[in-house]
Amino acid sequence: MNGLPELWVTYCSCEKNPVRVGTPAELYRSSRISEFIEYCSRKDYAWAILSAKYDLFFPDEEKPNYNTTFESDLATGQCLVRDNGMLLDSQKSSAWISRLVVSTQQKIRSRDIKSIVFWPGKPRKGVDPLKRVKCYLKFLHAAADACENDHRFWWEIVEHINALRKSGKGRIDLISDLPR
Question: Rounded to two decimals, what is the model's pTM?
Fold first, then answer.
């Protein structure tokens, strides 16, 4: 398989279409994800959705619908997993995320992904994106950059990713908006 010089990624959404099984385009109902998919398709960019259930979910894959997401405990900075409405404890969440990191690393290697552009979406009024997005970026950073640091805050992750990228050792490029 030829390598992917660059993969564009955004994180999954709770908003899903009522389908039993589908591709990312069929499964997610979020306007952020629709905008992202449309943009990447128009530019002919390779893309995937970073899923709290399936790790990197590529457009050529079909997966069962699911109800799994991340939550950041603002007091401790720890990422927790909410699966089918149930918030997993610290130990189970940690094991879940570790499994996602390993499977994401395998996909990065098998597809020979050199660079990942991560777009968290546009900030929405009244919504704290950092509470959930931080966990997605934290697990992507652990997988793509082999980072073992326990970044508690969003800014710590961003600073580390940017420093690694600047040094030529990091794979992730963070963008705040989709370029025109």
Answer: 0.93
